[in-house]
Amino acid sequence: MKTGCKELVDVANAKVKTYSLEEALKVYSNPDVIFVDIREREELDEEGKIPGALHAPRGMLEWYVDPESPYHKPEFSSGHLLILYCAAGLRSALAAEQIQVMGLKNVAHLGVGFWGWRDNKSPIEFSSETNSQGTAPAGRSRPL
Questions:
Q1: Cα(35)–Cα(48) distance, rounded to whole angstroms?
Q2: Model-level pTM greater than 0.70?
Q3: DSSP for 73-84, written as a single string
């Protein structure tokens, strides 16, 4: 293998703005900032999400970003700052880099991920179909 996951994430982090927890909390209520949860639906169901975050699972992200796609989400062409997050800040670095390649410039990611947000006791929400415990799966076996 020529390039492993760690190297890919390192390259992405060098190209993408990484928000610390403190920076993210400062802009959280700014109407010109959209938090984008790229985790899978099952992760949101088990752990909740940042209140108001747009759910755009990693597997559909490029389709949601592309204005020519039938799946396009207008939030991605709004011009607002998009702060992507996943569980631990790895997938979101790769995803933010990818959508920058697609042409979006006002993109960043949350370096500590959802787990850092939640462990700080920052606000989280659950949909009516999800659990309300706010606990991570045992052993944090979900993707990072």
A1: 14
A2: yes
A3: -GGGGS--EEEE
